[in-house]
Amino acid sequence: MLFRSVSQSRYRAGDNSTKAVNSKYVDSAITSIQTTIGASGNLVYKGTYDASTSLPSLALAKKGFFYQVSASGTLAGVSLTTNDQIVFTSDVSGGVVQATDFIVIDNTESGLSNGGLVVATASNGARMSAGVYYLHDSSSNISLTVPPQGSAVGLVCYLRIRGTGSVTLNAEGVSGGTFIVYADSGTLNGVKSVVLSKAGEYKLVCTRRTTSGIVYSQWDVTVSNDRALRSTSDLVEGTNLYYTDARARAAFTAGTGITISTGTIATTITQYTDELAQDASASLFTTGTHTGISYSYNDASNKIDSTVSLSGFSIDALSDVDTSTTAPTNGQALAWSSSGSKWIPTTISGGGGSRASYTDVSAFPYTIVAPVSSVAKLKYYVSQGASAVTINLPAVASCDGLEIVIKSLGTGTITIDANGSETIDGALTFALSLQNSSVSMTCTSTGWRIE
Hints:
Blueprint lengths: L22 H17 L4 E7 L14 E7 L1 E3 L2 E3 L4 E4 L13 E4 L1 H4 L7 E4 L10 E5 L5 E5 L9 E6 L5 E5 L6 E5 L4 E5 L1 E4 L3 E12 L2 E10 L21 H8 L5 E4 L2 E4 L6 H13 L6 E6 L4 E6 L24 E5 L4 E5 L10 E5 L4 E2 L9 E6 L6 E4 L10 E6 L5 E4 L11 E4 L5 E7 L2 E4 L1
Parallel strand pairs: 1-2, 7-8, 8-10, 9-11, 12-16, 23-25, 24-26, 25-27, 26-28
Antiparallel strand pairs: 2-5, 3-4, 5-6, 10-15, 11-14, 12-13, 15-16, 17-18, 19-20, 21-22, 27-30, 28-29, 30-31
């Protein structure tokens, strides 16, 4: 037998005999008994253990406590699988379970989900015994006899109804015998017979009962683990709380403007006048992000006025102006560039007596970029030293009428190369070989002409 007998005198109700039928007193006595038995090394089945959530806590487990694993996980670094059994071989010290505190009975060794008890089929009229896990799978209604246990307490057996048939538990003895307490049915005063009609697992624990000075053997019957027999009253609330009227009212009144009490909802609504609406609208416009734009409500005209300021804008913000690629310098103006379809900073020459621009060239090869159409003349002063260098001309299609002057400041030969197959006086290139020599060319629709 897995359980040790404990003297009944230790749990006698004393002068106040009503303690014997108080469920809290019985629960406290059972807990104390199991703790004592565990400490002495005998096995006490404590129920299931969820290894995935580490519940219930095993910080106070005693030697002899054992559990059925309901969900796989780990305990103190030891892997556990559903239906494994944990048996504590020593008391847990310091509230922290160590791998040396317990052993694991692999589920393949027992093949049962019954906490390691002896399994037996419940047969009609059978006398129940402690340490047995009874199964009733049929649709037949049967009865079982629950025997007295003398002075023994803490004995446990289980009954699992898996079929549609009911099981009637009959206490043995006519007088001074066994009483049954079925807590889940609300029967707390002790009866000689109880009918269990719902499928599920029931746990029977032997305790003691004193009535009119006489001590009786008593079996407490409780639902062990079947949800079908439970209601929300049996469950501990988790993250999702149950609905209650009080919680619903609290949710309604969590904000402002609504109050509720005993089924009556009262609301506070601000009535908007034209003035309030106009002020609110102006405020809404103004609080947004509007560069250079502000709004105000004019009470006199009943209008929302907008003010636009260009102080926050740059001319570069215009979609067809580009002053970022090439920053403008003193004296330049915006001129249209057909190649980029943008207005760009340009030095204006010719017409109106303006001076022609010039460019110093010292990096080679150098390619002349076609200017805007308003530029009539470009000058280039080439510092090539003694090196032979090349100056590339732009395409004639974008330079019709443009005059380009190139002067050699060094002794190296300057080769002026027309774009692609275009020509300079009929030739693809023109050479400046003398220092301080220069050439002036004008672009026509057929090529470059030397002046």
